From TrEMBL:
Protein's UniProt name: Zn-dependent alcohol dehydrogenase
Keywords: Metal-binding, NAD, Oxidoreductase, Zinc
Taxonomic lineage from the root: Bacteria, Bacillati, Bacillota, Limnochordia, Limnochordales
Domain Enoyl reductase (ER): 24-378
Pfam families reported for this sequence: ADH_N, ADH_zinc_N
Organism: Geochorda subterranea
Matches recorded under CDD domains: Zn_ADH_class_III
Amino acid sequence: MSAAPVPAPPAPIAVRAAVLEDVGGPLRVETVELDPPGPGEVRVRVAAAGVCRSDLHVLHGTLPVPLPAVLGHEGAGIVESVGPGVTRVRPGDPVVFNWVPGCGRCHYCRIGRPDLCDAAFDMQVSGTLPSGETRFRLGGRALHHFSGVSCMAEATVVPEAGVVPIPPGIPLERAALVGCAVTTGYGAVVHTAGVRPGTSVAVLGCGGVGLNVIQAARLAGAHPIIAIDVRPDKLALARRFGATHTVDAGRSEDVITPVLELTDGLGADYAFEVIGRPETIAAAYGAVRKGGTAVVVGVAAPHEEVAINAFSLPSQSKVLTGTWYGRSRPDVDIPRILALVQAGRLDLDGLVSATVPLDAVGEALEALESGRAVRTVIRMGEAGDAGEAGDAAEGK
Ligand code: COD
Ligand code: ZN
């Protein structure tokens, strides 16, 4: 009598991926091994990845994560295979990546705050999947995952909760941006601040995320919407996304006085800091009226502190709060945002500065760093179509 044959374990596949070995770079595109998905995991053929400033923060070490790692946390693709126990998606499903995959079991998930999920946070810190394992290898060495996504690669393995299924037919090169920039900006306005029609909004920092704060504020009916940036080209873009007034912070460091002037001397009802610097966080707090709300979207380096006048806390009763991934519920928000895009209420096309192949990821990060690019989209598996990363918004 012979034992039943044991099926051979599925073989890893070879994929090209953007690998960061050390802080400071270089970020190299390498051919790496990718294991099949384990229990509760999904392998996704990546269609497109957006280049976000947080990837740049990892490169510079201001967002410390375990290295070496495959970067990328904003993207979309098609499910290729699923591991044991996966029920929410099937091979062939189009998905957007969710970089805060709530575990559904911790205190924060149970109270309806998956944005604060302990397991998702631990996963980001450990650079692994929730199992504690990694699925990428280079030359026999394990590579870490970034935010459980690592989508600057032709394919990746993520936890089941790290993908949100989306309706078929939506261009994945645009849906990719909903994985971070759009959901973060929209959520900051809709969930964290709860902006009401007719209220005033100031936005400090009009990059990929800040422009989405602006267009969500427009959607919420805010007026005025005051855009503040050091770059005139970003301010021009901000107007296209719904800003009614602009303040050039490159001309004067004092951005509070212009906000007061535009709000009858009161200050804005809401201010959003979308840069990640102590000075601009303090300016956002200073730019809101008594009882108003300042929302910090940007993440400063871990050692930095913000000075807030102690007397103002009780006497002006302002709310100073933060938002992580726009305090969103990605399963609900991502399909909702895509429906708004399809209805013409939110703009994704105007965010895209260029579309490039994976090999141009280094140039795309440089274009973001220099301020030339808003979002560069990396199209996997084929040549890009828009020349140099950092050109003006495509077709605009
Ligand atoms: N005053 C006004 N504007 C400024 C100033 C200043 N002193 N300094 C820079 N700016 C402008 C820049 O000109 C630019 O337009 C904008 O601020 C920043 O935009 P981007 O496009 O460079 O950056 P985004 O929009 O891609 O990202 C912004 C974040 C704040 C989200 C990001 O930098 C961040 O803090 N990331 C860490 C948080 C995190 O991990 N998030 C997870 C995924 S995003
Ligand atoms: Zn991001």
